[in-house]
Amino acid sequence: MRTTTTAPAVQVSQLTRTFRVRSGVLGRREVTAVDDLTLTIEAGESVGYIGANGAGKSTTIKMLAGILVPTSGTVRTCGLEPVAQRKALARRMGVVFGQRSQLWWDLPLAESYRILAAVHGLSAAREQERTAELVERLELGAFLATPVRQLSLGQRMRGEVAAALLHSPALLVLDEPTIGLDVLSKQRLREFLLAERAAHGTTLLLTTHDMGDVSRLCERVLLVDHGRLAYDGSLAGLSREVGARRVLVVDLAAPTPDLVEVPHAEHLGSEGGGLRQRLAFDDAATTAAAVLAAVSERVQVRDLSVEEPDVEDVVRRVYQSRGR
Ligand SMILES: Nc1ncnc2c1ncn2[C@@H]1O[C@H](COP(=O)(O)OP(=O)(O)OP(=O)(O)O)[C@@H](O)[C@H]1O
């Protein structure tokens, strides 16, 4: 197993970034994308960085990666100064931008990995071992020889994640990793990230609009609002604060009266004469498995799904609960 550094994965203090943007025909105004942000992420944590559109998430990540220079404040990523020590940082950090590729569009994935292994100075043995591990765990084998431009979005995202992890970075930053993916592809990618973290102790920091990503992958949630930290804590704590609930949808073997007495769950509605029922529950009080078990004691369940609260909805509720 890789030895982890004792330095925090991320340490920012009073970090601020402004942009000058056009306003009106001749005018210009200043936008503060990140505003006096102070936070620490310890090595080994898994953190979800959430917020509404334009809240400042991508700008923060770009500063962590040394792509953008802060206007003021300090930033240390893996103990390094991102802009001044960008090369050294690249050895310890992997970044995946959901909307932007780091792969060579016309080359097969296998070729991209060969180039990246050379860039990172991996030994031939290490390159072979790590590529084989990632190909197996991300199920890339069937399309390793296909030019990236011909891959589906789900295939390409798996390819991107492997590219970011090839050099076994201590910190993996993912910007919207599951955007546009179907349910199964999301699930596979999340399972992989959990396994990777369990195997190597990788620190995970991800921005997402998908609460499923946060609830499956993140032990800690940072909510940013207009560039400022609005919440730092567990998802359960955030759910408690805003009353965000998940919804278990069950398809039953026979029409059933409304399931109104399931512990820690609220019956939201029924369709098809009670064949499909929706039950809201709070993650802080129970689990989807416990609600399902309670339903199964009463009636035969044929199929089920769990609907996640929407990040935008959670963000809106936080702002509302704070009187904004
Ligand atoms: N290069 C830039 N020039 C001017 N303004 C910018 C630039 N990059 C970001 N901004 C502005 O800074 C603010 C924060 O943007 P940022 O992309 O960090 O938000 P975000 O939280 O990542 O949003 P989203 O969820 O939509 O990706 C927005 O008002 C945006 O318009």
From TrEMBL:
Residues 10-251 form the ABC transporter domain. It holds the Pfam family ABC_tran. GO terms for molecular function: ATP binding; ATP hydrolysis activity. Transmembrane segments: none annotated. It is a peripheral membrane protein. This is ABC-2 type transport system ATP-binding protein. One of its GO terms (cellular component) is plasma membrane. It comes from the Bacteria. PANTHER family: ABC TRANSPORTER ATP-BINDING PROTEIN (PTHR42711), ABC-TRANSPORT PROTEIN, ATP-BINDING COMPONENT (PTHR42711:SF1). InterPro entries: AAA+_ATPase (IPR003593), ABC_transporter-like_ATP-bd (IPR003439), ABC_transporter_ATP-binding (IPR050763), P-loop_NTPase (IPR027417). It is found in: Cell membrane. GO terms for biological process: response to antibiotic. Keywords: Antibiotic resistance, ATP-binding, Nucleotide-binding, Transport.
